């Protein structure tokens, strides 16, 4: 299965495509879409849409994974990332790709084993998992690859995670003492 991961941003949008088959992960392509600092936000969004669409047409992924917005102290930054996320979702929808979103914490936990991992730790693990020897790889790129890897791990996980204790009990009656 071919998966594209997106780390959205209005100045830099990271993308990463992996192949995942028989529990083996292979790097296909990754990079950063650098958006010129156009004054109009709409022009930036058009570039993001166009570039991601071209990447999808060229590499033909079957799944689309996207990092959710992280709310920091700056509301304007959060809104701008939301615009980039919306445009990314639209590209997935127009290309009829199944889409899943993952929080930064969820991605870090899947890749590093720690939801509070640093960008350096995520980058290190992605380089190891995908055998990337290029030391010049950008954080936006490794973040996007991490989103794709997280998706691969989540869709092939043999165990279903329960959201509540009640759901856990219903899903696992053999684990309850009578």
UniProtKB/TrEMBL annotation:
Organism of this sequence: Stygiobacter electus
GO biological process, one term: DNA repair
Sequence positions that bind Mg(2+) 2: 67
Any Pfam family matching the protein: RuvC
Alphabetical list of InterPro entries matching this protein: RNaseH-like_sf, RNaseH_sf, X-over_junc_endoDNase_Mg_BS, X-over_junc_endoDNase_RuvC
Enzyme class (EC, first level): hydrolase
Protein name: Crossover junction endodeoxyribonuclease RuvC
Gene: ruvC
Subunit composition and interactions: Homodimer which binds Holliday junction (HJ) DNA. The HJ becomes 2-fold symmetrical on binding to RuvC with unstacked arms; it has a different conformation from HJ DNA in complex with RuvA. In the full resolvosome a probable DNA-RuvA(4)-RuvB(12)-RuvC(2) complex forms which resolves the HJ.
Taxonomic lineage of the native organism: Bacteria, Pseudomonadati, Ignavibacteriota, Ignavibacteria, Ignavibacteriales
Reaction(s) the record says it catalyses: Endonucleolytic cleavage at a junction such as a reciprocal single-stranded crossover between two homologous DNA duplexes (Holliday junction)
Matches recorded under PANTHER family: CROSSOVER JUNCTION ENDODEOXYRIBONUCLEASE RUVC
Assigned EC number: 3.1.21.10
């Amino acid at each position: 299965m071919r998966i594209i991961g997106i780390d959205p941003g209005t100045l830099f949008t990271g993308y990463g495509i992996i192949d995942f088959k028989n529990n083996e992960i292979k790097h296909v392509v990754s990079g950063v879409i650098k958006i010129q600092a156009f004054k109009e936000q709409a022009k930036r969004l058009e570039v993001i849409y166009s570039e991601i669409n071209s990447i999808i047409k060229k590499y033909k992924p079957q799944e689309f994974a996207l990092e959710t917005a992280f709310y920091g102290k700056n509301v304007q930054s959060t809104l701008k990332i939301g615009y980039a996320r919306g445009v990314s979702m639209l590209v997935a929808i127009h290309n009829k790709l199944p889409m899943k979103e993952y929080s930064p914490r969820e991605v870090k936990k899947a890749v590093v084993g720690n939801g509070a991992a640093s960008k350096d730790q995520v980058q290190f693990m992605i380089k190891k998992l995908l055998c990337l020897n290029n030391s010049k790889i950008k954080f936006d790129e490794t973040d996007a690859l991490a989103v794709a890897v997280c998706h691969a791990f989540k869709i092939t996980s043999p165990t279903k995670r329960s959201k509540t204790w009640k759901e856990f009990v219903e899903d696992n009656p053999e684990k309850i003492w009578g």
